[in-house]
Design goal:
The protein is built from four helices and seven strands, in the order H-E-E-E-H-E-H-H-E-E-E. It has helices spanning 4-16, 51-76, 85-92, 101-104, and strands spanning 24-25, 29-32, 35-42, 80-83, 110-116, 119-127, 134-142. Strands 1-2-3-7-6-5-4 form a seven-stranded antiparallel beta sheet.
């Protein structure tokens, strides 16, 4: 398991990384024009898991998100909370949703968002479907895109 310090280091690296001209993925980071998205931690899947195990893992991920949020709040102040429900609804109706929200809204209900040095940094916990792993992720984008 990675530590909060490891997560902060990853976030710092992504904050200064250039955005590519087209979508790319290098294993742990998906990037595109104006954004990067990286999994900080991914759980096991839950195909045969009982509900108590799913709840236990979700609590672990939410606690890890909370600890990371506290560290970043000390650094940058309190985050905004971005509810991705509107993005999901627009996507479902075939309306345009800017990246990376177009992808994130399918499995992350909300992001904690800080605006730092001309970019935004968002943290969230998501799960694509009840059998799939939980993901603690960071998304970084150009200011003004959310």
């Amino acid at each position: 398991m990675t530590s909060t310090a490891d997560h902060v280091s990853t976030i710092d690296q992504l904050r200064v990384r250039d955005f590519p001209a087209q979508r790319t993925a290098d294993g742990w980071v998906a990037s595109g024009p104006g954004f990067h998205v990286a999994d900080l931690r991914v759980s096991e899947d839950f195909w045969d898991a009982d509900l108590s195990r799913v709840e236990e893992v979700l609590e672990e991920f939410e606690a890890e998100l909370g600890a990371l949020e506290q560290v970043l709040t000390l650094r940058w102040g309190a985050p905004d909370v971005l509810d991705l429900t509107d993005s999901l609804e627009r996507s479902a109706m075939g309306e345009p949703v800017p990246p990376p929200l177009d992808t994130l809204c399918g499995y992350v209900p909300e992001l904690r968002v800080w605006r730092v040095d001309g970019r935004w940094v968002g943290l969230g916990v998501g799960q694509g479907d009840r059998e799939l792993p939980f993901q603690l992720l960071v998304a970084i984008g150009e200011e003004g895109t959310i």
